[in-house]
Amino acid sequence: MPRDLVAIHRPADYNPAVAKDAAMDRAINVLNEEMVGRAKGAS
Hints:
This protein is mostly helical and 43 residues long. Helices cover 58% and strands 0% of the residues. The protein has helices spanning 16-19, 22-42.
């Protein structure tokens, strides 16, 4: 069964208000949907 591992490193001075924008939100949502789709297809 395929598995996904996502690791996130954020520097100590990471500020999501500055770093995160609408494009990043869309990219995260697309990744989440792909991972959920793979999980459903594997069961």
